[in-house]
Specification:
alpha/beta; Rossmann fold; 6 helices; globular
Amino acid sequence: MNVHVLQHVPFEGLGSIGPWLAARYAKLTMTSFFADASLPDVAGLDLIIALGGPMSVNDEAALPWLRSEKAFIHDAIQRGVAVLGICLGAQLIASALGARVYPNPVKEIGWFPIQTTDATSDTVPLPGNRPVFHWHGETFDVPAGAIHLARSAGCSHQAFQLGHTVVALQFHLETTPENVHALVQHCPEDLGPGPFVQSGAELLAGPPDGFRDINAAMDQVLAYLARGDR
């Protein structure tokens, strides 16, 4: 399996996705936009994973590589390559498909449950009505033709799926304690007062078995995209 990762900042990495890929001997390549914005040929890739980041998909004037990244994602989708977007990555997929990305009414940072919406037995499995990890201030419209998969009390559009090869998740199922430590260290300004913003201590503690449960859910998402599990 040939996997290419789109990384936007050094402190947001693969988390639990890394061991899952390693266990399957995936050939892993990466574009780290903070160092080098070069992108490979889409041909020959089996899976593209677009990670999170503190920037907006609308910051093209300041970060011109966003244009080429969206074009790369759009090309991959058109060619039938599996694409997984996480947080900013999900917003990039939405933007690449012509949907609007804009500030959410509130920041959502912490462990909050999601509720499945139009999910079916044929869509990617998601942990409905269970706490997952969030860290975002923007959201997206669901692109035309996509299935709206989940919402939360703080954000109406949490996930969508296009066909059986494109999955966009506003929340983070890959998060490990190390990932949370890095976010708290590098983005402390995000942790201001808000109805859906938890403290650093709450973020690191999480619910009982929280990290284990979300990482297991991410394994299911990856298996769905890698095997066409439906």
